[in-house]
Amino acid sequence: MVMSRVWNVGRSHNIKIENSSFERVEEFKYLGTTITNQNSIQEEIKSRLKSGNACYYAMQNLLSSSVLPKNLKIKIYSTIILPVVLYGCETWLLTLSNECGLRMFKNWVMRRMFVPKWNRGVEKLQNEELNDLYFSSNIVRVIKSRMGWVGHVACMGERRGIYRVLVGKPEGKRPLRRTMHRWEDNI
Hints:
Blueprint: E1 15-17, E2 20-22, E3 27-30, E4 33-36, H1 42-58, H2 60-63, H3 70-85, H4 96-114, H5 127-134, H6 139-145, H7 149-154, H8 161-167, H9 183-186
Antiparallel strand pairs: 1-2, 3-4
């Protein structure tokens, strides 16, 4: 994969190393994370939400049961569903629309777990009431707290490779247009 600001740079050429030929692609999955040539995280977040949705539906009978206590349902959510959604979130660039989508997913799961099916359309709980009743953590706050490793990296010496990656500046200039939101701005 070639990462460039120019959209179709080298699109038609394959990479040849010794006797092997590798196709150039616009995106690929590596360790469960989708990496794109435009460094867009939107597709990755959508993919994570789909995986969390599938995880919820796999456990739907358990989570919608009236036999389980509420605190046990929250523990199941935070130990099984939430890690599926938040895998690799330390590298995400959160925009307001991404944060909104993540909050909507969390509230959707909470409503499915705690509000009876026959009562979902009649009396809709507000999001704040839902959070207060069931003491669930804010999903965006959880993501931002996971970015704490940056402080540890910042304390490392200049000889460490990861420190150089964190503070390094790429060569060249940014294109003339509206400045894009950067991962660094989240921190």
